[in-house]
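Hi V.,

Quick status before I head out on leave. The structure for the redesign project is tokenized and pasted below; the design run finished overnight.
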């Protein structure tokens, strides 16, 4: 409503907006953009950077609550994943995460060694990406930030999150973080990206059979691994 539109939680307390707040918002945006430039984030963000720059609370929630991230299919560098929901929102039992492989066209133009296709898929999956999730956390905390930073997939957001995330901290929700975990480590995902690169010339979509999705779920359940932010920070630092 109109009253809510004139409020903020900047400073930790919900209160009415002031002219000084608007100046502070502009400074926060400039600081965020400067941080993105320092981390060489342009035209997308790398999965390791998503993890490294995320809030610890989102990583903890991802590790404890999100048990799988299944690749459902993709086309021309756009991947669609499904994750479980945490169960905290009544009636919601799953979420969908979209990932755009921003460097897909570059990799699809490279000559492919049949013996190294998985390696090419891994390189593409770990290069620049654009992201979005259908959950409220991404919508109200991170979509504006991702839009301003240049790594949003889908709808851009122009409304500053003055209530939910006025300091513009963090990067991704727990569902996206679970997907980033798979993009950085899953050989299955890397093989599927390699297949999509191979299909790029023909313009064919990547179709994942239900049996393959079930196999992903079994393997992720068997080899349950948590997100290690420290390792991601070291990996992201090597990119600079």
């Amino acid at each position: 409503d109109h009253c809510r539109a004139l409020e903020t939680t900047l400073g930790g307390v919900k209160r009415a907006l002031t002219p000084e707040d608007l100046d502070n918002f502009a400074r926060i945006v400039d600081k965020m953009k400067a941080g993105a430039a320092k981390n060489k984030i342009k035209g997308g963000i790398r999965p390791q950077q998503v993890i490294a720059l995320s809030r610890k609370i989102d990583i903890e929630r991802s590790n404890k609550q999100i048990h799988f991230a299944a690749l459902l299919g993709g086309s021309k560098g756009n991947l669609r994943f499904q994750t479980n929901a945490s169960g905290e929102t009544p009636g919601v039992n799953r979420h969908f995460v979209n990932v755009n492989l921003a460097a897909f066209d570059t990799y699809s133009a490279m000559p492919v060694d049949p013996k190294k296709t998985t390696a090419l898929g891994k390189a593409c999956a770990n290069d620049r990406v654009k992201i979005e999730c259908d959950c409220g956390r991404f919508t109200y905390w991170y979509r504006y930030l991702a839009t301003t930073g240049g790594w949003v997939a889908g709808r851009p957001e122009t409304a500053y999150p003055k209530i939910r995330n006025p300091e513009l901290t963090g990067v991704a929700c727990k569902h996206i973080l679970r997907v980033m975990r798979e993009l950085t480590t899953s050989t299955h995902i890397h093989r599927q990206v390699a297949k999509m690169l191979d299909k790029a010339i023909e313009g064919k979509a990547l179709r994942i059979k239900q049996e393959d999705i079930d196999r992903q779920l079994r393997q992720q359940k068997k080899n349950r691994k948590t997100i290690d932010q420290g390792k991601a920070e070291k990996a992201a630092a090597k990119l600079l």
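Above is the designed sequence. The beta strands are 7-8, 15-16, 69-75, 78-84, 94-101, 129-133, 206-207.

G. will cover questions while I'm gone.

Best,
W.
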